[in-house]
Amino acid sequence: MEFKLKTPVKEVSKLKAGDVVYLTGLVATMRDRATRKLIELAKGGLKPPMDLAGIPVFHCGPVVRRIESTWVVEAMGPTTSARMEPLLEDFLKFSGVKLIIGKGGFSEASTRLFKTHEAVYCALPGGVSAILSKAVKRVCSVYWLELGLPEAVWILEVDRLGPMVVAIDCHGVNIYSEVRREALRKLRGCR
Question: pTM of the prediction?
């Protein structure tokens, strides 16, 4: 099925692995350093300066340029989400995020985390940054610029960001694991 979601996204149970999603509203970009910083603040009993509950998080380091007093996103492609896997459990626990976007997927072990926290993972292909940046209507705010432009948290207003595929749903289905199991089954049959 195809879904056109508007943010905030607080309920994802209707999304199933293999569904196609387009997003309109606010999206936050985050990579390793910002994810770690958010977790460290939460573990220390502090709140981050941004509330991410209901805002999809895009594993992305956008190419951003300042033109006079305005930030402009020139390109934004997904980064490899597996890099954030060691941080996933704490991130889902502390952030309130229900939808993560990236590329490359997560392992089978992380599938239970998405199920436990009733969240989903949507995948985008690499090499589409110029196309994706056209969905950005404006930069609403930026946090933690001291981490560097690609590592800062950018809150973007987007219109029809996608298409992306639900790769891990909150029901325990991980299409990466399904494909791997099927490939291994076929390999065993060839011997």
Answer: 0.93
